[in-house]
Amino acid sequence: MANKRTILVIEDEKNIGNYIEAILTSNEYKVLRAVNGRTGLSLCTSHHPEVILLDLGLPDIDGMEILQTIRGFSAVPIIVISARTQEKDKVEALDGGADDYITKPFGAEELLARIRTALRHRLHAGAGQPHIQNPVYSKDGLVIDFERRLITLQENPVHLTQIEYKLVSLLAQNAGRVLTYDFILKEIWGPYADTDNQILRVNMANIRRKLEANPAEPHYIFTEIGVGYRMLE
Ligand code: CA
Q: pTM of the prediction?
């Protein structure tokens, strides 16, 4: 039998834990379960899981604290499990080092897709490093050559402003991950810039006009409402 990938599920709600375990085991993953933070941390250090699914609302330790503790010693991909009403928590978790989040209730296909994405990032990341930049992003006719700073769409050059280019390349280098508004603003405009989401929305609207066949239904850059943007991987 091939080496199964190990997923650690830290979730105190038994029925959700059972649901996740059933999906994962029937898809050839090995599942470790913890119903509280202490067990979760101890399984993380003893078993070195390849992905962690982390519920933020746990009975003993706050999920954010667990996230920070794990980030202190490991770059293992962490997908936060959250309720739909906890938008602020999602943003905080992503800014705090989570790789992605999944909102309850979720389907098997979404869960599996997010885990595959997390595993790919882990492979790209190598040991200890957050992520290595690919020299080129290429997807469905959109090609970004980061070294030459060139963007082409169906082989036609796309002309972006400096800021637009920075924005697109930041998203492309993190394709598949949700980047929060706050993170993007800090990366592009600097930590002390006097900016708000409005400037980001304006730039994104311009980018979509240049890249998307239908800006109202984007194909390359998706809006995660209230959270941030995610680029097609
Ligand atoms: Ca919970």
A: 0.71
* Separation of alpha carbons 29 and 21, rounded Å: 9
pLDDT at 23: 97
Domain that holds residue 226: 136-231
Distance of alpha carbon 154 from the chain centroid: 27
Query: Residues 71, 99: one domain?
Result: yes
Q: How many angstroms does the Cα of residue 85 sit away from the middle of ligand 1?
A: 13
Distance of CA 139 to the CA centre of its chain: 18
Which of 94, 128, 162 terminates a domain? The answer is 128
CA of 37 to the centre of ligand 1 (A): 11
Same domain, 42 and 153: no
Q: What is the mean pLDDT of the chain?
A: 89
Q: How far is the CA of 211 from the centre of ligand 1 (A)?
A: 40
| 140 and 117 Cβ atoms separated by less than 8 Å | no
Task: Please give the share of the chain, as a percent, with pLDDT higher than 90.
Answer: 64
Residue 125 is predicted with a pLDDT of 56
Match 């499990």 to its residue by tokens.
81
CA atoms of 88 and 85, how far apart (whole Å) = 8
Q: Which amino acid is at 222?
A: F
